[in-house]
Amino acid sequence: MDLVVQDAVFVTMAEDAGPADGMLIRDGRIAEIGPAEAVRAAAPGAAVVRLGGATVIPGLIDAHCHVADVGYLAAAADCSQPAAPDIAAIQARLRDAADRTPEGSWVTGGGYAEYKLREARHPTRAELDQAVPGRPAVLYHTSLHACVLNTAALREAGFADRQPDPPGGAFGRDSQGRLDGVVYEAPMFALFARNLHRDIARMGAGADGGLIQAAGQRLAAFGLTAACDADMRRDTFAAFAEADAGGRLSQRIYGLVVHDQIGAVRQGRHSGQLATEAVKIWADGGMSSRTAAIHGTYPVPPHGSGILYFEGDELTAMVRDLDARGFQVCIHAQGDRAIETVLDAYAAVLTPGAGNPRRHRIEHGGAMYPPLAARAAALGIVVASQPGFLSALGDGFAAAFGDRSDQLYSFASWQRAGITVAGSSDAPVITADPLIGIRDAILRRTGDGRLLGPAERLPARDALALYTTQAAFACHRENEIGSLEPGKLADFVVLDKNPLEVEPEQIPGIGVLATVLGGVPVHQAGDIFPGG
Ligand SMILES: [Zn+2]
Prior knowledge:
Layout: E1 3-10, E2 22-26, E3 29-34, H1 36-41, E4 47-58, E5 60-65, H2 67-73, E6 77-78, H3 87-100, E7 107-112, H4 125-131, E8 137-141, E9 146-149, H5 151-157, E10 169-173, E11 179-185, H6 186-203, H7 207-221, E12 224-232, H8 234-245, E13 252-258, E14 268-269, E15 274-282, H9 312-324, E16 328-333, H10 336-349, E17 361-364, H11 370-379, E18 382-385, H12 389-401, H13 411-417, E19 421-423, H14 434-443, H15 460-466, H16 469-474, E20 492-495, E21 512-517, E22 520-524
Bound molecules: zinc ion.
C-alpha cells in the first residue's frame, strides 16, 4: 500500500535536498520526498498520514551497543546514580532483587559508578554480604569493565584470597591483601558472559528471543532503527536469528562478532535486518574503570597504566588475517597507548594510497589525542564513539585524566581532521537514548556541569549526523539508511519537536511519537500509522 506522510518538517540529512514537507512510502522504501503536492501527485491512490507539524528525521543508528546485554540487565536491580546515591541504597536494592531472583541465579545489580557514590569508592564484598548473605550476588560497574562480588559469588567463581591476579585482569584487595570483592577486566567479562548465558539457558527455549525482543522495544522507543551489536557470539547470534525469523526484531542489527567466535557464527547478510560482516576485538580496558591503556599512570585507583590485551605483533597478525578474509575489523581502544597499537596494526595491513576499503574501525577512541587523530585520518579509520559518556561519566574522566580531559572524545577536531565519526551509546554502559548523545555532542557538559573540551562542541546538525549518515557509513549501509532520500529504506522517526531548532538542553525531552522501520511502525505513541 502506498502511504504519503505529510504536514511535517522533514530533516532529511541528505546532502543536496530541497525543502520537503511530504514523503511517499512504497514497498518499505522512500519513493518520493519533497513538496507535499508533488508527492501526492505521484501516487493519487495513496493513504495519507498527516503529522500536524511534527518533525521527521531519519531512523537513528547506534553504531556500538550491546543489545543482548540491554535486554539482560533490564531485569537487574538498578544501582545507578543518582537512583542509588550511596552504598546503603545499593544494599536495599540488592535485598529487593534477592526476593525476586530465582534460586540458582545470582542476585544481580548494575549501573553504579564508585566516584558518583556518596562514599566515592567501590562497595565491598562485606557490604554485599550484609545485603545478600549466603547466596551469590554480583554488582556490575556501569562500565561493565568491573564488578563487585559477595563472598558466596567469589567462592562460586573460584576466586580465593591468596590467588594472584589473573591474566588480563585484577582483583581489588584490602589492606591485609584479602580480596575485597572488586574484579576488573578479563575475569569480569568471563563472569558476565557466564551469568548471561547461564540465565538465558535457565529461562528455557525462546527466552533468549524474548530478551532480544525486550531490548529491541526499548531501543525503538528511543527512535533507533539500526544498531551494531558489539558483542555478537554464537548463542546471541542464534537468539537474533530466531527473533529475525519470527519477525520480532525492531531494528536492523549489524553484528560485530567477537573475534574468537567467528568460526561459530555464519558471516554475511542474513536478511534485511540481520548481518554479520564485522569482527570485534578488545585492545584495552575501559575509561570509567580506569583500565584503558595509557602512557603514564592514573592518579586515581586502581592506579597503574591500564590493561593492554595484545602485543603489537599479535594484534597486527589478527588484523591481517581478518582483513584477508573480508571482515571489517572493529577494535575497542580507549587509552592513547592502545590506540597507538591499533593504528600500528592498521597501518601495517592497509595499502598506502588505497584507503580503508573495509572501513576498519576504532571503537570509542577516548584518548585519541591530536597526533593519533591525524594518523587515524590519514589511514581512513572510522571511529564509533559515545558522546553520551560526557554527561554520564565525564566527571570521572576529569578526575582520571586531569589536564588532558579537554582532549578526550574530541569530536570537532576529529571531524576537522577528516575522520568519519559514528555516534553510539555503548548501552547498557549508559542509556541507549541517542537524544542524550546528540545533546552531549553539542554541549559537552558533565553531570556536575563542568564543560569538557569546549572547543570540541559540535553544531546540532553535525551532532545529528553522527547518529544518521555517519553511523550508516560505519556499517557500510549509507546507500540504504541514514538519510531520507528516494530509493532508501523507509526508516524514520517522528518527533514532537525539531532537534535542530530547540535549545540543546531540551533535546532529551523531545517526544518520540513514532519509530518506523521499512514503512512499518515498531514503536508509536497513539495510532499515527496503520499496521503497528
Ligand atoms: Zn562496548
